[in-house]
Amino acid sequence: MDNIFYTASEILFKDANVLIHIRDWFFSQAGNILLAIITFWVGRYAIKWAKTFAVRIMTKASYDSAAMSFITQIINYALLVGLILICLNELGVPTTSFIAAFGAFGLGIGLALQNNLSNLASGLLILIFKPFRAGHVIQVGDTIGSVKSIQFMYTIITTKDQRNVYIPNSILTSQTVTNIAYATERVIPFMFDIGYNNDHHEAIKILKKIFANDKRVLNPKNIEIGIAEFGDNSVRIAAYAHVKSKDFLDVQYSIMSDVKDAFDKYGIDIPYPQRVVYIQNVDNSTGEIKGTKKKATGTNVAIDDSPES
Which pLDDT does position 189 carry in this prediction? Predict the structure, then answer.
């Protein structure tokens, strides 16, 4: 410990002019130091006021909480860096070199983090143009869920099975995003299969009656319904029911259940894929193969029951 104090004293007092220079600099810059302290203190309050003002403006513009938090953080850090540079300039420190250093540093970071900066810029675009907000139900590709939050790099979507999916913001600005929340009404596209031996006129009449009985269907009298195509195993009937967005899933589940009950009641078949398979029996004494053709349903696998030799 004594050696440390001795070394420090030797460095500080080796040249008495050092202390004199420090003292002279302090007294000569005392006004600038005081001004820098006052500037920093006032600047901090100015930054808080600017953040509060920005929040007030965004609240009037109906920005959601995620957007306001995102933007106020950027405002805070940007103004704080500017305030520090102003204070350094008040102390006589040349800020040009700092700005150049920050520029070079920012360029290096930007080249190393191109994807992240793209996500950051995309996040800003999402918050500015507001194609969706926290709480909205959106679809991105095969992912459908409620927007939980919009962060710097990612947007978190909570799916129906309560999985949090983190989607990079750059994907949300470069791909098609379907916002379901903005629509007050939606169309449920139904597709019903009936057998070729059934009367499709009767089936359509039953379907229209089911849609008419559900008060949540908005277009029962002029619902679009008819044969969509002739499938390999069935006649496919399409129907498009208009409902309130909040009733979408409830109506879909209810109608499908009612259709199954009605088809069972009136003997209308709901076909499923059928395949013909061959079961081969081998006579061990003669080696003769005796084939019997049988019809099987719900499979496309050929069955071979020949005994092993």
Answer: 95
CATH number assigned to the domain covering 131-179: 2.30.30.60
* Distance separating alpha carbons of residues 70 and 74, to the nearest angstrom: 7
* Residue 240, strand partner residues: 189, 224
Cβ atoms of residues 234 and 195 within 8 Å:
yes
Place of tokens 């978190």: 156
Distance (Å, whole) CA 203 – CA 192: 10
Which CATH architecture best describes the domain 2-112? Orthogonal Bundle (1.10)
DSSP 148-192: EEE-SSEEEEEETTS-EEEEEHHHHHHS-EEESTT-SEEEEEEEE
DSSP conformational letter for 307: P
Q: Is 3.20.20.70 the CATH number for 185-265?
A: no
The one-letter amino acid at 4: I
Q: What is the DSSP letter of 245?
A: G
Residue 163 tokens, joined? 């999985």
For residues 124 and 134, what is the distance between their CA atoms, to the nearest angstrom? 14
Q: Which helix (H) or strand (E) holds 291?
A: strand 289-297
Judged by phi (left if over 0) then psi (alpha if -120 to 50, else beta), residue 298 lies in left
Per-residue pLDDT tens for 166-214? 999 989 988 888 888 777 889 999 999 999 999 999 999 999 999 999 9
Side chain identity at 88, as an amino acid letter? L
Prediction pTM value: 0.54
- For residues 239-261, give the mean pLDDT: 94
Would you say 217 and 251 are in contact if contact means Cβ atoms under 8 Å apart? Answer: yes
Q: How far apart are the first and last CA of the chain?
A: 94
CB atoms within 10 A of CB 64: 19
